[in-house]
């Protein structure tokens, strides 16, 4: 026993019972719907019965609902009555959604150099809810024949714009819309440079012509049905428009510009770093040279002070009765500069001490008169 399903009918076949308990006089088949993918289909209604002759082994049940499971009961009858029934469940195939008739209705709303706006109208589900709406863009070629769409030759394989460029596909999916996004007729712009459910809707190239297709898809378990219709055609521009780059080339150009800019920025940063290092090195060298000159000048100053002190000692030895101002005040006029190591702090202290020694070294009080020498 078994059944072959179609969208709106089921072919049911059976075999004669192994133990008929007499000569079979007829077969009786009753059936009813028990569930459906389409919520609009009524289920669990009263059963219907079909009687077949004793030599029949099959029957076609027409006018059924798509996407609906039917339960069949088959039993044989003899002069002694009906024997036990055998149950079989068979589910009809789902149907493609029904799209509105666009013949005589202008779906075109607006057009620019890189876009075309069309009117989308919701489809009618048959046997299963609408799973998705899809907008397909097909590039026109002069030598390609006009394509007529039907339920059998719609665009079953989704192709993104990037894959279409790399694989040479004549079409790409510009958008996929959930059924909830189209509860009623709404406008849609092909080429608005946005992404819908992972499908990029790039600007159209003005010098190319396009066919715009609208399709609805229903999918349950392992079965998918699609219906599509062409809703608009965009002709290629006859005049050369303003420079509008191809989306793919524009993307490559942006990547190249970004790479060049990054390289220039890195070069500038490295150059600034080298300049800073060189300047710092020169500044350190200048400081080192200045420190050496300062130490040399201080050394000459100390030597001069030593010579001056020696002259003073000689003068005092010639006139032992002379008393200097520093002697009378217990000052030692000789300052010590024996430290061989000079740092920035020691140099400053040494300079102040030298000024102090020089100032008091030139003050003399001569014995025997009141002359003060400066």
Task: Provide a short characterization of the protein structure.
The chain has helices spanning 161-167, 247-318, 325-328, 344-361; strands spanning 2-5, 10-13, 26-36, 48-53, 58-61, 68-78, 81-82, 86-91, 108-111, 116-120, 132-139, 171-177, 186-190, 194-196, 199-201, 210-220, 223-234, 364-365, 372-373. With 374 residues, it is α+β, with helices and mostly antiparallel strands.
Task: Give an account of the 3D structure.
It holds the Pfam family fn3. InterPro entries: FN3_dom, Fn3_PTPRU, FN3_sf, Ig-like_fold, R-tyr_protein_phosphatases. It is found in: Membrane. With 374 residues, this protein is of the alpha+beta class. It has four helices and 19 strands. Among the domains are: 90 residues, Immunoglobulins (Immunoglobulin-like, Sandwich), CATH 2.60.40.10; 117 residues, Immunoglobulin-like, CATH 2.60.40. The strands form six sheets. Strands 3, 4, 6, 7 and 8 form a five-stranded antiparallel beta sheet that branches.
